[in-house]
Amino acid sequence: MSMVRSVSILSLSILALAACAGAVSVSDRPCPCADGWVCCPGANVCASSEAACGATKGADAGGLAPDAQSSDPGDLPTTRRLATAQSARAMIADETHVYWQNVDGQVVRAKIDSGEIETMAGGGQLSAGSPCALALASGTVYSAGDFVVHATDVHSNGDGTFGTSSEHAAEGIHTTNGLAADADQLYVAEEGATASPPSGAIIAVALTPSHPRHYVSNGLVSPSRLALDATSVYWVTGDGAVQSAPKKTSGSAVQAQTLPAIDSSQVRVVATGSGRLFIGTGISVVSTDTAGGSQRTLATDAQGLYPTAFATDGTTLWWAASATISKVATTGGSSSVVAQETDGSIVGFAANAKYVFWSNSKNEVWVAPR
Q1: Long-range contacts of 51-60 (CB under 8 A, 24+ apart)
Q2: How far apart are CA 193 and CA 282, in angstroms?
Q3: Interval 258-301: pLDDT, tens
Q4: Listed residue (170, 175, 172) closest to 187, CA to CA
């Protein structure tokens, strides 16, 4: 796949993991559609006829819901429903689009200014319970599939295809639990083929045409929730530990380092920024140095909700918990609510330099100033 011009994105850590596959009825199934069914423009779902599209909950031909300027969760006047789309799970954003992976493993995106939806040439049918995972680097979106990681150029050719090709960035992966990318490498959190002994791994894949790869660390317990800084990769294990290993471009796997004094029974998510780690543990958001020391609590949810996704630019930390998106300065202080979801729970979460995005359990994608 040719590597074309880079898409500039905010230097954020964004962590979210959701089960991707599940039962989906033929009606309201994401496009493309089975024989005899039509794809409803904008809504990006299937219906029995063009006439039936009008009865399908969703957006107009531009992808923007008809009430996008007036039906705002949390009564925030600048919050709007961007699009209606089936099962938007793992999410990521650049300055022009928000991307997500749906229940069929497809990568779909919506334009931030108009809500226009495009189904990209990536993804593939996933097994029941498979996690969604996305990463974006150098104009390419990487997405999880069964035993494979897909790579799709983000630049539209104007005919429903993207870039020059879509290819496999990595094959033979035993369930992708998470993806993260920097300018040089794609990092894959692999579940592994066996639970005993643990066979999970962190795999680094070079962002070059031949995609050579190597193990960063292996023998891990279900690693997920990847986060990167300039020198290391971090993850959460299936038994709740936060671990790290140095980034490297070649060589043998190294033993993972486990951060001390973290409540391993409660850890759900981790992010990096400005030389700090941000960890969602229980109902608290905790900041530590990258070795796990000098811990301080940045925020505690008064309603007892668990942080499930983070985004940070190093100055501010945003997180999703149940139906709320909140923020706090990475140095501490009072937290505030950015957006309140009133029509379902938050499923996917992403941020760019201007906005936060989320999908809800009602198959809607929303945007709000961050």
Answers
A1: 56/28, 57/28, 57/84, 57/363, 58/84, 59/83, 59/84, 59/115, 59/117
A2: 29
A3: 988 666 667 888 889 888 999 988 888 999 988 888 888 999 87
A4: 170
